[in-house]
């Protein structure tokens, strides 16, 4: 089961993460694909409830997944571009405090 789960995670999540901008426009289609992957892993029928399987796999539903990926991207970009400015401001604040 771990091998099947790993294979499904690698294949599904790499495809889901491929184009975050596209994910925003078609969440229902992608959610059904994610549900099918969870059904495959747990060998659930089409009429079985999928929520417990999604939770036990620690997967986010598509709308939450898109929000998470966008926030992560924004956070990384902000850290990369604003980090040097914050360090410079902190250093100059320390210098002005210690020298006056």
**Quick one: overall form?**
elongated
**Cα-atom radius of gyration:** 21 Å
Q: What's the structural domain tally?
A: 1
Number of helices: 5
Biggest sheet, open or closed, and with what strands and sense?
Answer: none
3D structure, described in words:
This protein is mainly alpha-helical and 100 residues long. It has one domain (2-99). 81% of the residues lie in helices and 0% in strands. The protein has helices at 2-18, 20-23, 27-42, 51-56, 62-99. The chain is elongated, with a radius of gyration of 21 Å. The model has no long low-confidence stretch (mean pLDDT 76).
Topology (elements, then pairings):
Blueprint: H1 2-18, H2 20-23, H3 27-42, H4 51-56, H5 62-99
Helix pairs in contact: 1-3
Summary of the model, kept short:
The chain is mainly alpha-helical and about 100 residues long. The chain has helices spanning about 1-20, 20-25, 25-40, 50-55, 60-100. The protein is built from five helices and no strands.
Which descriptors would you attach to this protein?
about 100 residues; 5 helices; single chain; mainly alpha; about 80% helix
